Write a sequence for this structure.
């Protein structure tokens, strides 16, 4: 969290921070309850990935698949937590993933995303992040990149709980 604060990325303040490892509720060890119910398979259970690479550090801002794209910018953890990530969020979109807490290149991320916004005609942006405080940095980074690129694109922001629900 210190790295985010040093880069002026706001982190929600929690009164009970001192109770968690590293002072961050997102680092708290917990066992997630899994339902024993079997759910019906989704109608379309095939992957929806349309681009490679997906990791922001590896992405080329000039990649042809970014032209006129609908972007999905997601936290690294989100696809593993939300079972219908492919069908509900990724379908028809170009995926970019990163972690605002663990990645050490926040300023470079702002610059790279801003370059994508400048070079490509981005139609829409959706953000999917976890409920933990540091993950909200994704929205801040995307908004700073939009400002830097002098672009006005509506951003849809979705938060996923640790239990795998959209909140």
């Amino acid at each position: 969290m210190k790295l985010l604060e040093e880069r002026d990325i706001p982190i929600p303040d929690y009164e009970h921070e001192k109770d968690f490892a590293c002072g961050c509720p997102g680092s708290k060890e917990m066992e997630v309850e899994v339902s024993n119910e079997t759910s019906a398979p989704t109608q379309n259970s095939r992957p929806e990935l349309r681009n490679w690479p997906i990791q922001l550090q590896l992405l080329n801002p000039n990649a042809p698949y970014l032209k006129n794209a609908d972007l999905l910018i997601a936290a690294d953890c989100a696809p593993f937590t939300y079972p219908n990530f492919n069908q509900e969020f990724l379908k028809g979109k170009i995926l970019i993933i990163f972690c605002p807490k663990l990645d050490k290149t926040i300023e470079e991320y702002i610059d790279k995303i801003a370059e994508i916004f400048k070079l490509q005609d981005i139609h829409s942006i959706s953000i999917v992040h976890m409920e933990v405080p540091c993950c909200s940095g994704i929205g801040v980074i995307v908004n700073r990149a939009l400002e830097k690129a002098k672009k006005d694109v509506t951003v849809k922001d979705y938060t996923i709980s640790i239990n795998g629900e959209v909140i």
The radius of gyration is 16 Å. The helical segments are 2-6, 78-81, 85-90, 106-119, 137-149. The mean pLDDT is 85. The chain has five helices and four strands.
